[in-house]
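Q: I'm writing a short explainer about RDD family protein for a general audience and would like to include a description of its predicted shape. Could you first generate the structure from this sequence?
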Amino acid sequence: MVERKDIGSWLSGPDTSNISKYPGERLGLPESGRGSMARAGRRILAIFIDWALCYLIAAAFFHSNSTVILGIFALEQVVLVGTLGYSVGHRIVGIQVQRLDGGPPGLLAGVARAVLLCLVIPAVITDADHRGLHDRAMKTVLVRR
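A: Of course. Here's the predicted structure. Afterward I'll give you a sentence or two in plain language.
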């Protein structure tokens, strides 16, 4: 005979045992403070600062050519994020890119992240830990400093 527990119930709701309490918990990061996931506000402000800086450079030397602005932005991301782990905007707002094991991202990660970031779509598709596709692809995370 079939019992109620065999077919389940809509009253029991979905299984929530695998849902983390805060972004970064599944990655072993703290909930807040140094080393916690960088939230959207800091990320948006950092990219705005980086884009504005690239725009100013392009306006001063290249007559505000939009392709040059994108190229300067990509170069900044490759060089600074790939070597130091942060761009100018990241440094100002107090966040940095690191590998999941805590090490620096490296030049390959800098190149891949820059290409995907310039495509925009991978950066706006995020998971439960607020990691964009560009971070997931390179096994990196953006954390507070």
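A: For your explainer, you could say: Helices lie at 4-7, 40-61, 66-83, 88-93, 107-118, 121-124, 133-138.
Q: Perfect, that's easy to follow.
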